[in-house]
Specification:
The protein has about 450 residues and is an alpha+beta fold. It is built from 13 helices and 16 strands. β15 and β16 form a beta hairpin. The termini are far apart. The relative contact order is 0.16.
């Protein structure tokens, strides 16, 4: 299907030249029954879609790359079928399989890829122009953009109702592997079957919990507010910047944390340091309350466990509360306090991942923008391994960072490193940057 839609950004005009509907290559002749979503999925109802961007400075020309991407995407969707569906037009939280596939947009950029590939500071308008909009009730959309001087941007948008971060990157790994193999799904690629069945999540009142979440979070479900799906809400004035912690930085940070506390994990040490640094940059009063939000994967914590091949959502929203003064104590005492508080929350999730399930949505009413840090993604996401046949990406970013204090963690480009992206008011970002690498 031809298109001639234009977007404007810091990169100049982005012209969408073609939109193709990509359907799964292999489909059963028997109609797929609707896939009922769980309370883990419904926890994200009404939230703006997630937008990710991968930049490939050495990619082939747009037309050649698009052909490879489309054919391999069709095969990948055959394994990850829910992504090709759409939300059912009913009050039930279900995915229906219409057979229409997903929108794959091809676009051309007037600017050069180097304008956004190497700068730690995000060109947010430029990033946004390189990711697609998501049509009502659809769950995934893809956009590939060719630059005037060469290189490609691969942007994708997905509804969090369909998948969490671990699931979506598993899909991306499979897509990249198929594309790398020349658009052929070899037998060794299939591995264990991907599991979608939400009935494996056992909870006596799960259905009523899902209905409660919908009533609380999205009473107009399944309607989506497409006019502001990027979640802008006037936050374009936030500054967004990416930092890299090397393996040496991380080792030093963990040693400091362990000097006054027990041994801590990489995740706990890094998140504690981010929380403290953000609070220092915000210059809160000592008695001002602050809250840290992060997500814990529950796949292996449930009884029975779901296993690694489950595709969907299975994360719990975790919170740690403190007053500012406890985090900015002298020496490493604040770091020790934050680490112990995080470890205690993680311990509780391990013991009872579904504790107070009925109250999970209450966390959203507790969040006070300007005093919170919300950590998404994970250092375990190997996003720089997404090689579609033209090398590893030069940059990978989360585009939908529209909250003051939003942090995205992924594994970095260099071995043992962690990439940290954060959104803060411009007046706070320079202070954060000056303190962040003092590890």
């Amino acid at each position: 299907m031809a298109a001639s839609r234009r977007k404007t950004s810091g990169l100049g005009r982005i012209r969408v030249t073609n939109v193709t509907r990509v359907c799964p290559e292999f489909t059963s002749t028997t109609p797929q029954p609707n896939l009922k979503l769980s309370f883990f999925d419904v926890l994200f109802v009404g939230k703006p879609p997630i937008t990710r961007l991968l930049l490939y400075p050495s990619a082939p020309p747009l037309r050649s790359a698009s052909h490879s991407l489309i054919s391999s995407l069709s095969l990948a969707l055959s394994r990850f079928l829910p992504l090709s569906g759409r939300l059912a037009a009913s009050d039930e939280a279900e995915i229906t399989f219409s057979g229409d596939g997903i929108a794959f947009s091809e676009a051309e950029a007037e600017g050069e890829i180097w304008q956004i590939a190497n700068d730690d500071v995000h060109d947010w308008e430029g990033f946004r122009s390189l990711v697609p909009d998501l049509e009502a009730r659809e769950l995934l959309a893809v956009q590939v953009t060719g630059f005037a001087g060469g290189g490609l941007a691969l942007g994708f948008t997905f509804d969090h109702l369909a998948a969490d971060g671990r699931s979506i990157w598993t899909f991306m790994e499979a897509w990249a592997e198929i594309c790398r193999a020349g658009g052929v799904m070899k037998p060794e690629m299939t591995g264990a079957a991907v599991v979608f069945d939400r009935s494996l999540i056992v909870y006596p009142t799960g259905d009523s919990i899902s209905r409660h979440f919908i009533e609380r979070l999205a009473p107009s479900y399944p309607l989506r507010h497409t006019s502001n799906q990027h979640g802008d809400h006037g936050t374009a004035k936030l500054s967004r910047r990416t930092f890299l912690l090397t393996s040496g930085n991380i080792k030093s940070l963990k040693e400091r944390a362990a000097s006054t506390a027990t041994t801590v994990s990489t995740f706990v040490a890094i998140v504690s340091h981010i929380w403290i640094t953000a609070i220092q940059a915000k210059k809160l009063n000592h008695d001002d309350p602050t809250i840290l939000v992060f997500f814990a994967d529950c796949r292996d914590r449930l009884q029975p466990p779901l296993g690694p091949n489950f595709f969907g959502n299975c994360v719990k929203i975790c919170t740690v509360k403190a007053v500012s003064g406890e985090l900015i104590k002298g020496g490493d005492h604040g770091l020790s306090f934050a680490c112990m508080a995080l470890q205690e929350e993680i311990r509780k999730v391990g013991e009872n991942p579904l504790e107070e399930l009925e109250r999970w949505t209450e966390v959203f009413s507790e969040l006070s923008e300007g005093r919170m840090v919300v950590v998404s993604a994970s250092p375990r996401f190997r996003v720089y391994d997404m090689d579609f046949g033209w090398g590893r990406p030069g940059r990978v970013e989360l585009v939908c960072m529209t909250l003051d204090g939003h942090v995205a963690l992924v594994e970095g480009k260099e071995e043992g490193s962690i990439q940290v992206s954060i959104a803060l008011p411009p007046s706070q970002m320079d202070v954060f940057a000056s303190l962040f690498h003092l590890v």
